[in-house]
Design brief:
The protein is an alpha/beta fold and 455 residues long. The protein is 28% helix and 19% strand. It is built from 14 helices and 17 strands. It has a six-stranded mixed beta sheet with strand order 1-14-13-17-15-16. Strands 2-8-7-4 form a four-stranded antiparallel beta sheet, with no helix packed on it. A four-stranded parallel beta sheet has the order 11-10-9-12, sandwiched between helices. Helix 4 crosses helix 5.
Length: 455
C-alpha cells in the first residue's frame, strides 16, 4: 500500500519565493577553472593530463580509479596550468587540475550529435553514463553507473525521479523541471530500458505546481510513467523518505543488523538533474560538465537559478550575479541550503558537480540558538521528527560520553542521514545534528583505519 507521506519530518520555512520565478541562465566562467579529483563518493579520479596540455570542453581530464569512482570532465577550453592541492568548500586541501580558461569554450568533436533512443542498448547506456562522469546531483555525489547496475535489474519495480527539492531556498530543480520536462522524461525512458519490469515515478512536492503541470504534460501518453505530487514536508527528498511514499516500503534499517539499499527493496532513485544528465550523455554524447544551481538568500542582491560549469568559483558566480545586497553583511555562507548545507569559510573555492546552490544568510540562526541553548528537556520531539526512527537525544548522550559502541551498535547511529530535523525542532536549541555528524565521521575514520568495509 502506497503511503501519502513518510514517518517524521518538519516544516521549515521554504524561502522559495526569492528565486523560484527566475529562469535558468547559463553562466560561463571568466577566470581559471579548478577541478577537484574527488567530486563524488568513492576513490578520487586519476589525472589523464599534465601541466601544459591543451584541453577542450567535454574532454575527460581524470579517469575513475576503481568501481566506486567517477571521471572528471573539463568544462572549458584552455591549457592545464597546474595539478596541485587547492582549497575546497569543506576548508580542506584536495588534489585539483587547474585550467587556464581561454574563454572560447571549444568542444571536443562529436559532442551533441543526436542518437536514436531505440537503437541504444543497455551496454551503451551504462558505458556512456560511466564515461560521462555522472554522479548523483542531489548532493550525495554517488557514481550513477554504480547505482544503475544492481545485481538483479529485473527485480527493480520503481525508478523514482526525485523532484522533491525540499531543501529551503533552493529552486534550481524546480526550474529544470519547468524548462526541460521533455528531456527529463526522455532520460527516465532511457533508465527504464535498464529495468524492464519497472515503472517510472516522477515525485514532486505540492509546492511546485508549475513543475507538476510541466512534467505531467511531458509524460502524458507514456504508459510506464506517472507523476506523483508529494506532501510538502522536509526531508521529503531523502531517498528513504521517497521510497516510503512511492513504494509503500518502510525499511527502518536502524532496527536491522545489515545495510539495506534501495535496490534491495526494488527501487532506484535519481535526482531529476541526474536524469537530465543521463539523457544528455546517452542521447547526445554530452558528458557531465555543467549543472543547475541556485544562488539565493536574504543577503544576495539578485537571487536566481543558473546553469553553471563545474570548476567555476563560487565567488566569481556571486559577483557576476550582482554580489551581496547593498547595506547587508552576510552572516553565513552555505554550499546548499540551511538544513543540510555546508558552512563555508571562503567563497574562493570551486563549484563541484554535486553542489546545487549557494545560500547567503543575513542572520545566522546558529548564533541565536547558541544564545538560547539549555540542557535537554527530555521532550522527545527529536525522536518524533526523525525520518529514520532514531533517538537523537540518546545518540548525543552516547556520543558525549564517548560510548561509540553504544552509538553505533545499540542505537544504530550510522543510519542518521544528517537531515537536521532534530536540530530544527529542538526547543532546547541543542546542536544535535552537528554532534551526530561529527560522531559519524569519527566512526567512519576509525573503520577506514582498521580496514573495515562495513557501512
Amino acid at each position: 500500500m502506497v503511503k501519502h507521506t513518510f514517518r517524521g519530518g518538519v516544516h521549515p520555512q521554504g524561502h522559495k519565493e526569492l528565486s523560484r520565478d527566475a529562469a535558468l541562465r547559463e553562466y560561463l566562467p571568466k577566470g581559471e577553472v579548478v577541478f577537484p579529483l574527488s567530486q563524488h563518493i568513492g576513490k578520487p579520479a586519476r589525472p589523464l593530463v599534465q601541466k601544459g596540455d591543451a584541453v577542450r570542453v567535454g574532454q575527460r581530464i581524470a579517469e575513475l580509479d576503481g568501481y566506486v569512482s567517477a571521471n572528471v570532465i573539463c568544462s572549458c577550453s584552455g591549457v592545464v596550468k597546474a595539478i596541485e592541492k587547492r582549497r575546497v568548500l569543506t576548508g580542506g586541501m584536495m588534489d585539483c587540475i587547474v585550467v587556464d580558461n581561454d574563454g572560447q569554450f571549444t568542444p571536443i568533436e562529436g559532442m551533441g550529435e543526436r542518437q536514436d533512443i531505440n537503437a541504444v542498448t543497455v551496454e551503451d547506456i551504462l558505458r556512456r553514463v560511466r564515461n560521462g562522469g555522472i554522479v548523483g546531483l542531489g548532493g550525495a555525489g554517488f557514481p550513477t553507473h554504480v547505482k544503475l547496475s544492481p545485481r538483479e535489474p529485473g527485480a527493480i519495480r520503481h525508478v523514482i525521479a526525485n523532484g522533491a527539492e525540499c531543501e529551503p531556498y533552493l529552486s534550481c530543480n524546480d526550474r529544470l523541471m519547468r524548462e526541460k520536462a521533455d528531456e527529463i522524461v526522455e532520460g527516465l525512458e532511457v533508465m527504464l530500458k535498464l529495468f524492464p519490469n519497472a515503472e517510472g515515478v516522477i515525485a514532486i512536492e505540492e509546492n511546485k505546481p508549475e513543475a507538476i503541470e510541466a512534467m505531467t504534460r511531458a509524460s502524458s501518453g507514456h504508459s510506464k510513467l506517472r507523476v506523483l505530487p508529494l506532501k510538502t514536508k522536509y526531508p521529503q527528498g531523502g531517498e528513504r523518505s521517497l521510497i516510503q511514499v512511492v513504494a509503500g516500503v518502510d525499511y527502518p534499517a536502524a532496527m536491522l543488523q545489515v545495510a539495506i539499499l534501495p535496490a534491495d527493496v526494488g527501487c532506484v532513485v535519481e535526482n531529476v538533474g541526474t536524469i537530465y544528465a543521463i539523457q544528455q550523455a546517452v542521447l547526445y554524447k554530452i558528458p557531465l560538465f555543467e549543472h543547475v544551481f541556485t544562488l539565493s538568500g536574504e543577503a544576495v542582491a539578485n537571487p536566481g537559478n543558473y546553469i553553471v560549469r563545474d570548476g567555476t568559483s563560487f565567488a566569481e558566480l556571486l559577483e557576476a550575479a550582482g554580489g551581496v545586497k547593498e547595506g547587508v553583511e552576510p552572516k553565513k555562507a552555505l554550499a546548499g541550503g540551511p538544513m543540510m548545507g555546508i558552512a563555508m569559510a571562503s567563497l574562493d573555492v570551486p563549484i563541484q558537480k554535486q553542489n546545487n546552490g549557494l545560500t547567503l544568510l543575513a542572520e545566522d540562526p546558529n548564533e541565536a540558538a547558541e544564545a538560547q541553548m539549555t540542557a535537554c528537556l527530555r521532550c522527545g520531539r527529536c525522536t518524533t521528527v526523525c525520518p529514520m526512527g532514531l533517538m537523537p537525544q540518546m545518540l548525543v548522550d552516547a556520543a558525549t560520553a564517548g560510548d561509540l559502541r553504544r552509538y553505533e551498535v545499540k542505537l544504530h547511529g550510522m543510519e542518521c542521514i544528517q537531515c537536521g530535523s532534530c536540530t530544527y525542532i529542538c526547543p532546547a536549541k541543542r546542536p544535535l545534528m552537528q554532534i551526530l555528524k561529527r560522531t559519524k565521521a569519527e566512526i567512519t575514520a576509525r573503520r577506514r583505519a582498521e580496514g573495515g568495509g562495513k557501512k
